[in-house]
Amino acid sequence: MTTPRDRIVNALSLLPTDRVPRDLGGMRSTGISAFAYPRLVEALGLPPRPTRVEDTGQMLAVPDLDVLDALGCDAVAIYDGVTNAFDQPELWHDYDFSGRLAAQVRNPQAFHAQPDGTIVQDRRRMVPGSYVFDEAHGGQPLDLSADLPRPDLDQVRRAIAARELRDDQIMQKAQLCRRVRESTDRAIFLNDGSLGVPLGIGAFSGLAIFPMLCVLEPNFVAELHELLTEAALRNIRALLPEIRDNVDVIMMAADDWGTQANLIASPKVYRTLFLPYHQRINAAVHEIAPTVKRFLHSCGAIYDLIDLVIDSGYDALNPVQWSAGGHSFREWKDRARGRIALWGGGVNSQVTLPLGTVSDVEAEVRDVVRCMREDSGFVFCNIHNILAEVTPDKVIAMYRVAGEPLGA
Q: What are 255-271's pLDDT values in tens digits?
């Protein structure tokens, strides 16, 4: 009998599946808004419960097992000590976000409610009527009258040393992964900041500045990336042997290379300053854990980067934002076919899902899935997180249609 884990692993291995695998919340860009989640729970006829919010920036719900069951989803997640594979009541504490949401969070002390209902978290704010926390300039101010800021390599070295895994941390992570494996037959998607590719086109100085550093100071960027890569390899070699039998997919990198229309930096920049380091890290993961799948998240119009992503050693690419950049989902599938799995892209998350009717959603999901499921290599979910305004009937419809028999 095919298990949900088999279904995901086969799809990522480009092998046949009994049906299209589905995901909700396997990582922090395939989830659902904490404000939309209670309506979904109610519409599914499930008992009400406080919404658990692990990502308190994007305000994403941790999907419960009964919701995954109802939608036919095949993966569970581990997020830095939190999982939805079993209950962890000791980690969660009530917080109602100024009366707007019956929720639980890990650290309610991190939030401060102001008299007008605005909630402050670090430097981020969620104003009344907003559904996410935001920061001025996205936390990345740009001053072109000044010298380009660049990271201090000594500070980077100190930060690297502080993040190097200790034996007790490795033991805790290994125990959690083992317990998750014993509790479920779903695929286990590990989201852990200790593993992965710590490079990014928007890292350190931000998307407005770091691409310019890549062009103007490539030797400095190469030195920085070498430091980060060696640190990543040390953590991978320490932790991965302890968990490799108990995880199926690892979130290796979240690095948004695309805008709505084009790439943020040229393929040449990726090829010279990113590709070699991605290859080294992915090769190490494959050597230590050859059955574990390596996952890249990169938003936007990155169609022209797909070949280089494949060369980098990834098994799965997300969010498959075919709606950006003028290429169809058919073109994305043809470019990826037989070489890399596509995780996402199930419906246009900016137009059809929020603005279309239920019938519009059903029709687009049916067209996308019929194309994407060809030759395997596809896991269904929305192009990105399901936003607060999306009604539950559309969510239920998209997962129902995605689960139609392969011959339909």
A: 999 999 999 999 999 99
Q: Which residues contact 109 (CB under 8 A, 6 or more apart)?
A: none
Task: Cis check for the bond before 290: say yes or no (omega within 30 of 0).
Answer: no
Cα 97 to its chain centre, rounded Å, is 24
| Torsion angle of the four alpha carbons 157, 163, 166, 171, in this order, in degrees rounded to the nearest 10 | -150
Sign of the C-alpha dihedral computed for residues 393, 399, 402 and 407 taken in this order: negative
Cβ neighbours around 135 below 10 Å, total: 14
Q: Report d(CA 3, CA 232) in Å as an integer.
A: 32
E-strand stretches of 36-157: 51-55, 60-61, 75-79, 82-83, 93-95, 103-105, 111-113, 119-121, 124-126
3-state secondary structure of 176: helix
When the pLDDT of each residue in the chain is averaged and rounded to a whole number, the result is: 95
What gap in Å lies between CA 101 and CA 103, rounded to an integer?
6
What gap in Å lies between CA 256 and CA 259, rounded to an integer?
8
238 near 283, Cβ under 8 Å? no
Q: Say whether 240 sits in a helix, a strand or coil.
A: helix
Q: What is the model's pLDDT at position 405?
A: 83
Structure tokens at 213: 């550093």
Alpha-carbon span 89 to 368, nearest angstrom: 39
CA distance 175 to 407: 41
Task: Report the C-alpha gap between 172 and 82 in whole angstroms.
Answer: 12
| Parts of the chain with a pLDDT under 50 | none
Sequential DSSP letters for 250-312? EEEEE---B-SSSBSS-HHHHHHHTHHHHHHHHHHHHHH-TTSEEEEE--SS-GGGHHHHHHT
pTM of the complete model: 0.96
Confidence at residue 144, expressed as pLDDT on a 0 to 100 scale? 74
Q: Helices 153-163 and 218-243 meet at what angle, rounded to 10?
A: 0
Residue 405, number of CB atoms within 10 A of its CB: 8
Domain 4-88+154-402 has CATH 3.20.20.210: yes
Question: Do residues 231 and 198 lie in contact, with contact meaning Cβ atoms separated by under 8 Å?
Answer: yes
Q: How many CB atoms lie within 10 A of CB 108?
A: 13
Residue type, 49: R
